[in-house]
Design a protein that fits this description.
With 138 residues, the protein is mainly beta. The chain has one helix at 39-58; strands at 19-25, 62-72, 81-91, 95-105, 112-124. It has a five-stranded antiparallel β-sheet with strand order 1-3-4-5-2. Strand 4 and strand 5 form a beta hairpin. The protein is elongated, with a radius of gyration of 16 Å.
Length: 138
């Protein structure tokens, strides 16, 4: 029997795909009045992770230009340890597509679950915020 592979991220039910780019804890300040962690907070953490990863791949400064295929699988709770994993999906002359998976380790347990994934597109930019060819530095 073959393993299920997600078409966007390439991950399997067994674990995350890619390199760790960011790790943080969901805090009470990241919630709405009902106590649920905002999806926007999670998206911003994933953008930070993808941007950091893309900067190394591009050899310099990058800017987010698109987010596609965003899927929220499970909620994130206060106290969960969030880890974002990244890998390069596509490379153009001036842009990179980076798949970002968000996984949590639930507070007070060793349960790891994928909670969200998305595809972020970054464009390489120079010090004047103009597009540049990837690998030419900031």
């Amino acid at each position: 029997m073959s393993e299920t592979v997600h078409p966007l991220s390439g991950s399997t039910p067994a674990g995350p795909t890619g390199e760790v780019s960011i790790r943080t804890i969901a805090m009470p300040a990241d919630t709405n009045p009902s106590g649920d962690v905002f999806g926007g907070w999670l998206m911003s953490q994933m953008d930070l992770a993808g941007g950091t990863f893309a900067r190394y791949c591009a050899g310099g400064r990058v800017a987010t230009v698109a987010v596609d295929g965003f899927t929220f699988h499970k909620p994130v709770f206060v106290g969960d340890e969030l880890t974002c994993y990244c890998h390069e999906v596509r490379r153009g002359r001036t842009s990179l597509a980076i798949a970002v998976e968000a996984w949590v380790r639930r507070m007070d347990s060793n349960v790891h679950e994928k909670v969200t994934e998305g595809l972020f597109t970054f464009v390489a930019i120079d010090d004047n915020r103009h597009k540049r060819v990837i690998g030419t530095g900031a």
